[in-house]
Every structure is written in structure tokens, then in C-alpha cells.
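Sample pair:
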Amino acid sequence: MSAAEETDVIVIGGGMAGAGAAFEISRSAKVVLLERESHCGYHTTGRSAASFTENYGNGVIRRIVLASRSFLTEPPAGFSDYPLLSKRGMITVARADQLELLAQDLKAAQALVPSIVAMTPAEAIQRVPVLRADYLAGAYIEPHSMDIDVNGLHQGFLRGARARGARIVTNAGVKVIDRQGGQWRVDTPAGTFLAPRIVNAAGAWGDEIAVMAGVRPVGLQPKRRTAFNIPAPAGVDISDWPLVHDVGAEFYFKPDAGQLFVSPADATLSPPMDAYAEDIDVAIGAERLERATTIEVQRVSRSWAGLRTFVTDGSPVVGPDDEVPDFVWLVGQGGYGIKTSPALSRVCASLIAGTGMPDDVARQGVSLDDLTPHRLRVSQFARVAS
């Protein structure tokens, strides 16, 4: 039996969160990243809508996205061979019965992103000619919304972590976690690893990892999100279309490698699993698309699903556990983990180093109370007390 491998920090999970954490933590500490699958990013990271918008998610999410933009716009030298962001834009649309919601949403959006402006239905249809005039009653546009090169960002984190000495271990699903001589001992099929600290970046499986470590769960709720591709309308160049998003979060669509990427924006509770698209959800997405546009869905090229994992307040959980400080959480990013990863990775690394919230993240109005698991313990206590 081979000896256990010792390191400073064990990161569990090789998706975007774990890769980003390994990249940042390995600046000053020795890191081993453990991924249960044969390659990193198999689950939610590899199934993303790949959209960078500053106008999606709750207030905490939006501020973290603002703190992530500079990294995505100008990544470190050698991080990626290609730009991580490319021009797309996003139009939010509304039916007549949604106009009040649209007005509220626009006001909240402009408070953080002043470049967002209202559009007339005619202007929206000019940008996306398949939108139905008898459906569309109002719209606004976020002109600086972008597409993200998800693979480029993920691989940049992994490559950068390796360059700093981190070890990435695949086929390393966690079997046992226990304490041994003041260190965490993690047993996997790929070997046994020892470290004084664990970062739990296991996504939908985050609470399961916590239980294995004897740590109280934070109440993660994985929710399935469905997507599918359909052929572009015949004879139509869709390459410059923006992402189109319904203000009621009932659907969205965007160009995707010559086809249309469509989602019914579903959020169905699910156990942690290798998620797959249900036929009914694809059918709902197709029906909503046909109601809002002149597109008739004749064929679905491909369909898939991923899990977006939340806690009760919709904000990420990042930082040392308040009861077991050597167990560090990096979970609950919801559907926003790609675009928030640069800032959240730095927050995680900074809290491990004991230097507090990074200044640029704090300047966006994000506090430790917004992120650390302590807020959830306080909330749980308040509910019990009431």
C-alpha cells in the first residue's frame, strides 16, 4: 500500500470553482485537486450557457460579477491563447402582461449597470427579426454582455495551477474523509492524501462531502437546467444576434456555433447526479420559443442538462466553516459559477491565507457576511427560534 501524499490544501472538485481555487491558492501553498471523473469539468462546468452578463442573479451575484470582469477582460499573461470574452449583448423581452415586471427589472439593472437602456419592440425586432410583433411589448438591452470561452477559462485555471506546482488528480472520487494527527485524510481510488485544510468545491455533491467530513451541511439545493440546440432558420445569419432572455425567466436563446442554443430556464429540484434532459422540458422550451418567435422547431440537434446548486438566499457559500474552520466551502454558485469564478477564487484563497476580503471585491460592496457559511447558521437559528 502506497504512502499517503501530503500537501497544504486539498481541493475537492475539478469544475470551474475547484480549478479557480487551485489556481489562486497555489500562488502561496501546495495544492492537490481531486476530481471524481476521468476529466475535470464533466458536470455543470461543461454544460454552461457561456454567458457573461452583469444583470443576472441577486445583488450579491451581480457585484461579484462586476469584480470578475477585469480578469476576464485582461487575464494574466499566458493564461489563454484567445480572448475569454467575445461580443454578444443581451436583450430582455416582455409580453404585455410582463411590462410592470420589465420596468422594475430595468430600474434595478441600471442601478448597477448604467449602460443598460430600454428598447422599443421595433428596435428589438430589428436586432432579432424572428421575434413576434404580436408577442413583444417591451424590451431593454445590455450592450456589453458577452460570451465566455468556458473551456478557455477552465483550462487556463488548470494549466496555471499546474505551472504553480498544483497536482490535478482525476478518477479520484472521495471514499472516506477523516482527521488524523490534526490533518484531513482523504481516501480515493487514486490514493490517499493528507492536508491541514480542505476546500469543498464539489458542486451539487458539496453537502455529501461535508457529511463525510463530519461537517454540518449548508442546505444545498441542486436544480436541473435544460438546454438544447436547434438548426438556425434557413437562409438567416444569426451570428450577430444577442442573447434573448425573457424577463419572467421562462426561456432564453442565443447563437451557438451556427445553431441556436435554447433553454426553458427550468429549475427542477434534483439529487446530485449526472443530469440529463427530460423530453418534457425540451418540449416546453420549444413551445415557449415558438410562442415568442416565428421559428418552428422541426428538429432538436442535441439536448443536455446540468445542475445549478443554490442555498436558501441564492448567494454563494465561500469561506471557512464556522464550526470546523479547516473545512473551507466554495459551493452554491447557482447558475453563475462561470462568470463569478475569478472573484470567488480570489476570495477563497484570500480567506485561506487569512487576509480577508480582496480590496477590489470589497469595493463592489461584497462583504464576508454575504458569503461565509456563518450567515446560514444564523438564519437557521433564527427560523428555529421563531
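Residues 381-386 have pLDDT under 50 and may be disordered.
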